[in-house]
Amino acid sequence: MNSLSRRAFLSAGGAFILGFGLKPNFTKGNTVNNRDNKHNSVPLNAYIEVYDNDLIVLKIPFLECGQGIYTAAAMLLAEELDVRLEQVKVKASLPDIAYIMPQDRTQLTLGSYSTGKAWLPLRDAGASARIMFLESASKLWNLSIESCRTEAGKVYGPQGESLSYGQLVLDAVKIPVPEQTKLKDVSEFKLIGKTQPRLDTMEKINGQAIYGIDIKIPNMKIGLVHASPVMGGKLKNIDDAQTKKVKNVTDVLYLEHSCCVVADHYWAANKGLQFLIGDWDYNDNPQSNNNHINHQLHLAMKQAGETLFKNSNDDMETVFSKAVQRHKGVYQQPLLTHAAMEPLNCTVYVQNDQCEIWTGTQIPLWIRDQIAQLLGLPKEKIIVYNQYVGGSFGRRMEEDYIIEAVQFAKQVNYPLKVIWSREEDFAQDHLRPAYVDYLEAGWDKAGNIIALFHHIVGPDHVDYWEGEEKKSDYSNMVLGLKDASYQFPFYQINYTKCDIPSIVPGWWHGQEATRNLFAFECFIDELAEKQKKDPIVFRNQLLGDNAEAKAVLQSVSQMANWGQKQTKSIAQGVAFIHVFDSYLAVIVEAEITTTDVIRLHRVFAAIDCGFAVNPDQVCTQIESGLIFGLSTALYNEAKLQNGKIVQRNFNQYRVIRMNEAPVIEVKIIQNSSNQGKNQPGGIGELGTIAAAPALANALAAITHKRYRSLPLVSNIKN
Amino acid sequence: MLTLNINHKIIKVDVPEDMPLLWVLRDVLGLMGTKYGCGIGECGACTVHLDGEAVRSCNLPVGLIGERSVITIEGIADDPIAQKILDAWITHQPTQCGYCQPGQIMTAISLLKKNENPSNEEIEREMSGHICRCGTYQRVKEAIKDAAGEVEE
Cβ(A390)–Cβ(B100) under 8 Å? Predict the structure, then answer.
């Protein structure tokens, strides 16, 4: 690591703070300590603050949305700093370039990568600080640094003398940041790799945890939004006289495409909204239905598309012409909403010279810059306090709800908490787009797959998200495919961009890998069936000499007792994925009852994420992803009628509940070749990605029909 | 002016009678542990106890409560069964985003008060009114069974 900078200062509260930050533009040991400049003398360039009461505050740029990053990050720091995990309090950093992870361009919580990105920087910061505490104590005692040691937040001398880090912090800040740090070997870990309870459990179960929707600011009012149900619709013929008469309603605010009824409490705002009279002018805005969209996607599939990936110089038709047999499949996947538990919300206080924002966001720095531009204020005058969120699944990657809240809040002189009702949260969602995937494979006499072609058809939400300035390079479109572990002598992936009018395409759980690998892993299963091979034996052949991948597949097959005699109505299906630098194999055991009900019996999962930092939390993340993915695969499709999202609440958008949840068993394979050497792979989204193909393959094993479209419940009932 | 008994305290509130209890708790009394998830009694995030029974506060008009005792997640600290549940939650670590968990915990407490040794089916029947998008059902079920074992002893 060569990017450590340091800040030392006396905080306003009287606690002494030693701050470390990792800034790409700083070289290690480059100290910035400008006490005259107010901005530099507050902890804006720091991950760690050590207080004289031995509290360690770790500020990280990541959003805690359930994935357990606060705990994993605290473990990484505590391990090398040699403090007790309970001493560490993790907080969301403010939006500042100082807090970005070295490999990022901005503060970003995305793609199951947070633990991996923090793996070296946080350990390095901890190790550097530990040496500074050691050195400061040894100087005080006039001893050699070698004769002192650290343990649980204290430095000990040879005679048993000890000083806590809190006692040492004022001296430690005067020690130069070490040029080199030696990180612990895996065998020396006391915390990392050993299950630790989450640090946020107690506050989340006793009702004390503050989510964005729980923010309370003095003089704050509650605003309830209602926006055009069709994208781009404009308000017309408004009459808010009755609304304003509702007790406790204080204001009605308008934007071009939405309005916000403001009141002392949610209920009055809700009542006020019901009395609001007005229409939407949809002009010529597109008002699609699901059928239109699917029709457009299938038409676009006839185009050749742009080649995004090809592993051979050979011509596709020439290669395919050598095949003794060919097989093809067309897969269709629906629009999806996020339906996180916490409805969207954002609290904003716009004053003349600054704007404060309380919300949960995966992109705080981007938000700061956007809002600065919107309000014409300097960036440092936009303060984003990132909050816990009740689930994101990609929704908090978007900026729309924050921008809208600021546009309402700048019309008033009090803090405004803008809430989307559950119904608005559904209606204004940025949908996971619908897609069509075409796959074709050819094999030789021996059954070796000699060519595989995958044609992806649908929108690219990254293109939309990046805005006008930067167009996506479509690298996201091949997520999970390009990194698939199977060996094909000829493998080509094409993409035809087909926008869906009348929806806002958005980020979604597992990103493009969720869609890609449903089609891909179902198709691999079809190829095994065509060749009359066992699906796991067939996959093993495709894995060549990839021992790590094979170990994962073998492990899950043992867990599930794969190959046992199946009944007429119960069967197992498998999926194997390699994405976000992790391997996951899943076997779903499902039943189709005589009344065509799909029952989930058991799910087995084997995961190799390189190195499991907090093993039990790896298991919980896989369990969680699997339930999310199984819910989606079974039931979910956002229905679009004349451009409007039809479902508006959980009574219309079925998700798995406890009575339908399968028994899940997760096994972690600690990868022997990679253990602790490289950054850990992702875990948060993998279960979701593997769930749908494993379930669809299980159903196919029962009925001997192939399920090429989601949701599955529509297939079984048809 | 309505008089309510919330977490063993008598409180007077000036709110319309049709206002759901959820919003009285959150926006008038500042008790934020009871969550808004759906507003139609589908998800269970807003669950509180009404005379010991788990009820949804999002569609319970506050004018119908009368003298009945309301207990929210903030009011369970002295309850020994609640303590067993919280301990089991720490052991089994179901909590992820955590948003639905206070509601699930309120139902779990009322379940164990009615039935100190519920079967799997009884736990499922009682808890299936809750939605958890993090899919923590398996660990919630294990935590309840574990807490029930403790209660029995």
Answer: yes
